[in-house]
Amino acid sequence: MTVDYFVMAAYLLGIIGVGWWGKKRAASKSDFLVAGRRLGPLMYTGTMAAVVLGGASTIGGVRLGYTYGISGAAMVFAIGLGLLALSIFFSARIARLKVYTVAEMLSLRYGDTAAVISGVVMWIYTLMLVVTSTIAYASVFDVLFDVPRWVAVVIGGSIVVGYSALGGMWSITLTDMVQFVVKSLGVLVLLLPIAVVKAGGFGAMADELPHGYFSLTSIGGQTILTFVLIYTFGMLIGQDIWQRVFTARSDRVASWGGTVAGVYCLVYALAGAVIGMATRTLYPNLAAADDAFATIVRHALPTGVRGLVLAAALSAMMSTASGALIASATVANNDIWARLRKRTVSGSKDDEIGSNRLAIVVLGIAAMGIACALGDVIEALTVAYNLLVGGLLVPILGGLVWKRGNLPGAMASMIAGGTTVVVLMATDGLLANEPIYYGLLAGFVAYLAVSLLTKPTEPSVVQAWHRRLAGEPAPTAPELSVA
């Protein structure tokens, strides 16, 4: 493993170096949080694909393929469909708003009161995304290097927090491009064909695998529907995804670049499931399905290639972790902390960058602590998306497509949907299907009924909203204030 250790160490050092280089470009709040809104098609596509395909998509996708066969691609496939829908139908309008957070969008659409509750929900979601990616790369270290979980968490987490805090979105964008290339090479070009060949090809896999492993629905229709509700809809409204949309230099880049990234996700989904099936063929009696990815890498790949594929896995996990971390810090600092202190979100350049940098460090340490306490990457990710979709999907999409929606309706939807999800997760289990079904239903009914029974949104708020949707420049004075 000496050569593999060297390859991985060189990769990690390179990531730190790229992150340090990105620090020089973070000269303003816009640079630090949204890369100056200057990304072109190539960088936008690569970084968007990198942020949505993380530890859960890689480790979890292979795990589902190992357990259910080709239908295990459903989870990551749902992520790709969500990114396609976002890019085709909404990304151009989102990019024109010129905001930093989803809560700012809700503030523009409904009024400032909507921002705090939505900010809290979004903050919990993004923090849990950091945790899931941290758990994922810790599981790789566990199997391959036999180190304690907390050691793996601290090493990987320190690297992610370090380069994220150095240059913010510019560092993350540059490192994500490296990670996108390494991930594509390691997983799609190397691991996928090697795993299939080692398993004897698709014919041998069909003979050895349990019945139904080549069925597109063996994971269950209800499970597929739940994946669509959670992950497809979650892609439409997540702060980590929107923050990448804000980095596009134009509407066209956001739309077409995101569409290409969505197609890439669909290919990645199938690759993960097939790798899991090949692993099941070769190693049918693993103690834990989460070990499938690390096992196939460790035993099936030659020296050097193994190190590159492991670096690819770390790329997937770290790109999502860093994207979610800066999203969590942005929400915490700009939507929650600023409002609780009763001040505007703008200030001097150094104060803005410094406070967001501090938030990254604090939340990164918190995420490492939570990751040490939790162990199931799919469970943690499901909790995050249940809270996000159940609490915020209806008021966000409703605000974009229904003129009659108003602040009381949005608040009622957040409370009804979020509360229903939390209660049902506590009573029926974290992985149950019911929380998201009934959470969405409760949020939709509350939004529709309360909006129709109360006064419409103030005309001045509606006019300002339509000006921003039309792409008129955002004000240069303080962008938000707390009444």
TrEMBL record:
Asked if the keyword Transmembrane helix belongs to this entry, the reply reads yes
The UniProt entry, under InterPro entries, shows: Na/Glc_symporter_sf, Na/solute_symporter, Sodium:Solute_Symporter
Arranged from A to Z, the UniProt key words for this protein are:
Membrane, Transmembrane, Transmembrane helix, Transport
Tell me which CDD domains the record gives: SLC5sbd_u3
Where does the UniProt annotation locate this protein? Membrane
Is this entry keyworded Amino-acid biosynthesis?
Answer: no
Task: Specify the superkingdom.
Answer: Bacteria
Q: Which residues cross the membrane?
A: 6-22, 42-62, 68-92, 113-138, 150-173, 185-206, 212-233, 253-278, 308-337, 358-378, 384-402, 409-430, 436-454
Its placement in the membrane is given as: Multi-pass membrane protein
Give the similarity note.
Belongs to the sodium:solute symporter (SSF) (TC 2.A.21) family.
Name the UniProt record assigns to this protein: Sodium:solute symporter
Please give the organism: Streptomyces hokutonensis
